[in-house]
Amino acid sequence: MDRLPRWADITLVPLVSLLFAAAISALVLLVIGQSPVEAFKVMVDGALGSPYGWGYTLYYATSFIFTGLAVTVAFHAGLFNIGGEGQAQLGGLGVALVCLSLPWPHWTVALIAATAGAALFGAAWAAVPAYLQAKRGSHIVITTIMFNYIAAALLVYVLVDVLRPTGQMDPASARFPVGAQLPALNDIPGFNLIFQRPVPANVTLLIALAMAVVVWALLWRTRLGYQIRAFGKSEAAAKYAGINPVRITIIAMLISGGLAGMMSINNVMGEAERLLQNSSEGAGFIGIAVALMGRNHPFGVVLAALLFGFLYQGGAELGLWTNIPIEMRIVVQGLVILFTGALDVMVRMILERLFRLFRSTKAMRAA
Amino acid sequence: MVAPADTMGRQATAAPFAIELKGISKAFGPVQANKDINISVPKGTIHGIIGENGAGKSTLMSILYGFYKADSGQILVGGTPTPIPDSQSAIRAGIGMVFQHFKLVQNFTVLENIVLGAEDGALLNTSLGNARRILRELAQEYGLDVDPDALIEDLSVGHQQRVEILKALFRQADILILDEPTGVLTPDEADHLFRILRGLKDQGKTIILITHKLREIMEATDNVSVMRRGTMVATVKTRETSPEQLAELMVGRKVLLEVEKTPAVPGKVVLSVENLRVRDEHGVERLKGISLDIRAGEILGIAGVAGNGQSDLLGALGGMTKATGRITLNGVDLPLSGAGADGQSRREAGIAHVPEDRHHHGLILDFTAWENVAFGYHNDPKYQKSALFMDNDALRADTEKKMATYDVRPPIATLEAKNFSGGNQQKIVVAREVEQNPDLLLIGQPTRGVDIGAIEFIHKQIVALRDAGKAILLVSVELDEIMSLSDRIAVMFDGQIMGMRDPATTDERELGMLMAGMDGKTAGEAA
Lengths: 367, 527
Hints:
The complex is a heterodimer. Chain A is mainly α. Chain A has 15 helices and no strands. Chain B folds into 3 domains: 5-94 and 174-251, P-loop containing nucleotide triphosphate hydrolases (Rossmann fold, 3-Layer(aba) Sandwich); 108-167, no CATH class; 269-526, Rossmann fold. In chain B, helix 15 (422-434) runs parallel beside helix 16 and helix 18 packs across helix 19. Chain B is globular, with a radius of gyration of 25 Å. Chain A binds chain B through residues 1-2, 217, 221-224, 226-227, 229-230, 233-234, 236-237, 239-244, and chain B through 28-30, 318-320, 342-347, 353, 355, 360-367, 371, 374-376, 378-379, 384, 388-390, 392. Chain A: This is ABC transporter permease.
């Protein structure tokens, strides 16, 4: 079959998918009697029109980069980690325990320790489904989904009965000490020239970007990444090559869970500065869409995370400034996921046909 | 002698033809699978179609059976133009197909399988009754004896194939297409099949036999058409041609059909296997106590019909399958289960393995050629840059070197494995394993799905490795390959070794008996 040129595969397919999603979203807006043009203006203006809007968009994108990378690493090992949400919540617990344990002298030290804590707790939460998959053949999709519920229940218990300061009404931990509060982008020299008002996007963004590079190097430059990818492509062939399936399954899931857990340094440590119930707010699930749209490539994940950050922030703005219900952002996200993930093949087929037509007319003209 | 295909086509108006293809073309994207194909098959003949993998034989037959629609061209059945848009139309036109992989329901009886899809009416019993009567007539007419009440799973492969033929005849096929029918048969069963086909021919049926085995063409057909790269190169009368000429037509150049090798000079024992046993996941014993030795500088060939334990033997030796018993390599015991019984440890011990199934085991099709060259040897120090990172540049350079030595085409290290032809894929695997300079090479089905040119090359590499004093275990279902390469032949049947033979003093008949499970003594007497 005719294949698309690489550039078209990487850029054109997602762009056209997005256009489709946008078109259908516009139709939905028309049906509920709203102006799609107006809605689009509000979204772009609110999410990208000012440094303040960018501050939110980047804040959301930071979380999505972590969870998208988590899904990516597992995916390359042939594992579908649906448990990013639970792993992120446990990561939040790790962050809270670290931050509340000591009167941290400086945020850099606290950040290193909290990152380790987040990764450790996230990885530990992924370890059980990984072990069950590797040793007992229990399907990881099922077990990771179930672990999301267990995580939510566990967090409620910990927040209500253990971490809640006496006398406090809401199920949340105490506020973190000042030494464990991360600088937002408006606090960082250089960035503060752009972000002059306080924004939630914080120094974690830089860690997220660094992790994208680390994941890329891991997958395509190291021996471990080679084994992960080989195992993910063909388990039978991996066995022939002597790649230990148990070891790779567990390691890949530990890395994946660790990355999902690390997102909590963004929202728990960087923004809320205490642990709240349902702190990850569905970012673990968005990570699946981000990885799908980013083609399971770390750099694609960064771009897709930005897009979803825009949708999140733009959607929130819709709720603020228009009569469009905030649920509309879920519709738009759903459509984006549908077109970039599930209907990817359809879009590609249309483009392939167009390309063939284009090529044959060019060939005819040349002849 | 060699008549151009289209002159045969022009004679079509004169003689009665069962089937004629005129100007059939079919493209898949940029790949022209069939290009202006013309064949005329006279009534009551056996017509062979021969060609290498990817020459377009299967596409052509799929067009004839209604699986694909030709881009252009015409099909004439019995002189009348007959469009065949689907397999139902093919059956109505009297065309029956026996596939390489049988399409039978294992836990149905022969009769139920034959009726399946051709029931006359809603009540099964009347259908089965009628079918039983027709089947009895067919059995008498063509000598196709099969117990109608036997379950398919209890039948031998040869008998299952007869059921497939009966299925086609039951649907009143006058033209029978057989796609690589002998791939799963013992030589004896193949002979039997050819007798059946001749019987069908004498009754006026027309048979199209698709194969890549020259011997079968010479033995069974009246006429033969040769395909190469989507075109029909020639159609000749079988008795006026020779295997050498056909091979040349298939490949487009002169090929050496015989393997050139000097007598072996066996040295010390490299691999010693004692009482090796393997159970599959259902608890069925697949290897029932295999014992053998392989010496340095010799090729031990394992002959046998597919599925008689050869794969389990390779799996156990290559560290893919758990086993019991004892194996030693150069006098050192190798573990058969638990730690150290994996592909990595085996490679470190000096065993290289070209697996039987390169698509599922030997290669990762989505990986590039250079990533595949590291496959299994990814821990090799020469491919490491540091403790953590692989040296991808060194790997690419190494791959380019190997591709040049093994004449892999195209020689692009960054191309994904799935984009190479079967022969070139196999060369990549063979290059990877042989160039590790192992003490023992396990090689399974080295030339399955590989074109003749590459077969010649791969055989040379195997012999060269032997001459370098290495031990080689060769498993192949192609008896010709076993006979021409091996220095000793072990025949496997039902997880056991039925006997060891010297290729110089044995023949296909004797090996065929052993392959069918008759022990050495009986086989000797029969011979």
